[in-house]
């Protein structure tokens, strides 16, 4: 998704359809769920935030950060701050392409 529509070479399924299904799936996840993942860096997630080609990628990244800082705040809030995540989340709020649900989590 992140690479944009020009890279999507399949006719079926359509990119828009996959993005819609991804959004529905992400929306169904419990944001307070505990996950057995140990991040040493948010860089792979953070690089998805400031783009508008695939808002669903941005939505997933925002959901992941929201989950981690909500469930494990003492571990992941400092990492988010250290790696510049706050300013990137602020940019999500400014992008017209960001979904309202994404903006809610970015706040």
Automatic annotation (TrEMBL):
It comes from the Eukaryota. Keywords: Ubl conjugation pathway. Residues 1-106 form the Protein zer-1 homolog-like C-terminal domain. GO terms for cellular component: Cul2-RING ubiquitin ligase complex. Transmembrane segments: none annotated. It holds the Pfam family ZER1-like_2nd. This is Protein zer-1 homolog. It comes from Notothenia coriiceps (black rockcod). The lineage of its organism: Eukaryota, Metazoa, Chordata, Craniata, Vertebrata. The gene is LOC104946210.
């Amino acid at each position: 998704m992140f690479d944009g529509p020009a890279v999507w070479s399949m006719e079926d399924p359509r990119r828009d359809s996959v993005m819609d299904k991804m959004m529905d799936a992400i929306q169904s996840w419990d944001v307070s769920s505990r996950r057995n993942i140990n991040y040493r860096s948010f860089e792979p997630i953070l690089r998805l935030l400031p783009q508008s080609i695939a808002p669903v990628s941005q939505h997933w990244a925002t959901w992941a950060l929201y989950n981690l800082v909500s469930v494990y705040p003492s571990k992941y809030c400092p990492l988010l701050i250290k790696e510049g995540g706050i300013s990137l989340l602020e940019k999500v709020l400014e992008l017209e392409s960001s979904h309202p649900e994404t903006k809610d989590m970015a706040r």
